[in-house]
Amino acid sequence: MVESAFTERLGEVLDHAGLMYWEVDRDFRVTWANETFKRRFGDPVGHVCYLQMGCSDSLCPECPIEKVFEGAQDASAELVRRDLEGREVWVQHTAVPVKDDAGQLIGARGFIVDITDRKRIEQALRESEQALRNLIEQVPDTIFTLDREGRFVFANAEMEKFLGYPVRRILETSLRDHTLPEYQPLLDEMMRLKPETIWDEEIGLRDVQGNEKFARIRCTGLFDEEGNLLELGGVMRDRTVRRALEEELRGSRGALVEKIKIIDELYEHIVQSGKFKAIEQHTAEVAHELRQPLAIVGGFARRLVKQLNHRGESDRDRQQQYLDIIITEVQRLERILDRLIDYTERGSVYLQRVNPNDLIDYILQITSGRVQ
Fold first, then answer.
1. From the centroid of its chain, how far is CA 93?
2. Torsion angle defined by CA atoms of residues 244, 249, 250 and 256, in that order, rounded to the nearest 10 degrees
3. How far apart are the first and last CA of the chain?
């Protein structure tokens, strides 16, 4: 192709813009290149383009110039090339046809943009996204994203383990579709979340088999400049087992309290039964101890009666001996009764209004025999 003023002006404009530009004839031979191109890849004029840029004996794969020669009005491809210093460079090569005054295709113009930095950023972004995805998939909690209508737009593999649905099926539903009716008012609150706030609640859900599940959800929202909710992102932690254990613990605590009450009642019964047994044993001992002094008292009392009824001279010394024995045995009986009263004495006192004079008279009457 013959250089033209248009080519010169276009090349200068693209030089100022830092873009590379060249022209190629139908034989893929370079006929013109601007200074930016030459500084980066050397002077290609007079050389076959794929030998100059592709360092190959054949056309480059996805070559945009070839596509233009095949009839495309424009073609573009991202290619890897090496610059004058041997560094690998990513370029976006766009080609358009060049025609003569008769409209015949006589070559192609190529516009080349260095996209190395962009490709590096894209690669870093892909690696970062992959690392993030790996991390998300390894987290033992369910991570999810909802749109402004509460529909799932993302869920990691833990969601499938939690609810039993394939993730692709989860993405066709909303969180409300899986929430138990009594917890759905909480979802209404979640969808009214304000900027810079965190929603943290426990809700009940139903899995693919119809079983009730419980999850603690902690999420926050993404909002536009006007404060309108765009989406919600959060973490869902399975609380089903913990909730069951808490319920079991509450039930066990109640059962334990009831068992303690039963034990207390049994203990009281045992105490009472033991007391009654002790009273029974003690009563038998008292009866045994009372029998002997009563027999003695009765015997000597009968002897005294015989002597008093005897018309002959009485033996006062022997009568006095009998009386001393009777008094001793009576005192013994009193001691036995005192011990019995002390054992059976109640701890509580029954209070009653009485006339003190009547009480004193009563006490004097029952104790007159002991007063000497």
1. 54
2. 150
3. 160
Extract long-range pairs of 26-32: CB within 8 Å, 24+ residues apart: 26/69, 26/105, 26/106, 26/107, 28/59, 28/65, 31/1, 31/3, 31/107, 32/1, 32/3, 32/7
- CATH class given for the domain over 5-121: alpha beta
Give 125's contacts (C-beta < 8 A, 6+ positions apart). Answer: none
Domain boundaries, the chain: 5-121, 139-238, 245-367
Closest of 55, 54, 45 to residue 1, by C-alpha: 45
139-238 maps to which CATH number? Answer: 3.30.450.20
pLDDT in tens, 155-211: 988 898 899 999 899 998 999 999 999 999 999 999 999 998 999 999 999 999 999
The HSE-up count of residue 14 (CA atoms within 13 Å, CB side) is 22
Q: Is-contact 170 161, C-beta < 8 A?
A: no
Is 40 within 8 Å of 48 (Cβ atoms)?
Answer: no
The first and second tokens of residue 225, run together, are 């400049």
Residue 317 exposure: Cα atoms within 13 Å on the Cβ side: 0
Sole residue written with tokens 């087992």: 241
pTM above 0.70, yes or no: no
> CA-to-CA distance for 219 and 234, rounded, in angstroms?
4
From residue 328, alpha-carbon distances to 297, 299, 325 in Å are: 9, 14, 5
pLDDT beneath 70, residues of the chain: 1-3, 54-55, 132-138, 252-257, 259-260, 263-264, 266-267, 269-316, 318-319, 322, 337-350, 362, 365-372
**In this structure, which amino acid lies at residue 156?**
N
Q: How many CA atoms lie within 13 A of 260 on its CB side?
A: 6
Of 271, 277, 275, 293, give the one whose Cα is nearest residue 337: 293
